[in-house]
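Hi C.,

You asked whether I'd gotten around to modeling the 242-residue construct. I have! Everything is below, sequence then structure, no commentary in between.
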Amino acid sequence: MQTTRSTAATALSESDIQAYVDGLLAPERAAEIRRYLSERPDEARRVAFYGNLNRQMQAGFQDADSEDRAPLSCLRLYGALVAGALRWRARVFAVVLLLALSAAGGLVWAMHVPGEALEAAAVMALQRAGATQTVPTSDPDGKSFADAPDLSSVGLRTVGRISARISPFARAKGFVYRSANGLPAVLLSVPDLSATAQPQWQARRLGVSRVLSWTAGRTRFVLAGRADTRGLMRAADLMTAR
């Protein structure tokens, strides 16, 4: 005897299955689909999966309606985690930025050179140069003074190279000159990140010495010599005119 399958086999569609799991079919059509599924276990498992998924979705919508009482959904939990991570990264960035600014400020402070300290160093170097009867006419290594500012046009010739510690983080470097009347003059320069531009030199007397100072390109300059040293102020004019 040949078994006759349910007539629902040729008419069952995805919309029928969806309506079936939603409970929207007429009783007669629902009974046909149940007979159809009883003959096809694979289809029955698929429809059961749809039914389970449908119940989960409905439960999710109900939870959304009672959001105040429901726990966080996966999507909301993920959003909360992302927002927390972004806030944490923002705090870390702010701390790093603050530390970088503090380090930069500390570096500027450490590199700061008080004008009085540089002037005092120039006057001390001038006194040593005046006390030395013989000043070397070339570098200790036998090199020329090609990197020294050429002040020969105002009567100052380079005769030595000097350096002086201004602070734990700053060392001034410069040159010793001799004027036409045989007096020494000292030029010192030192980088200073905190220095403001002062292209016009300023002069003041320190005892018998005259000190001329100016700032160019974040570098402080001091030219010191005795008040009667020839060409001193013209040398400052020449250097600040560059």
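If it helps when you're writing up: Helices lie at 14-22, 27-39, 41-65, 74-111, 115-131, 232-240.

Thanks,
B.
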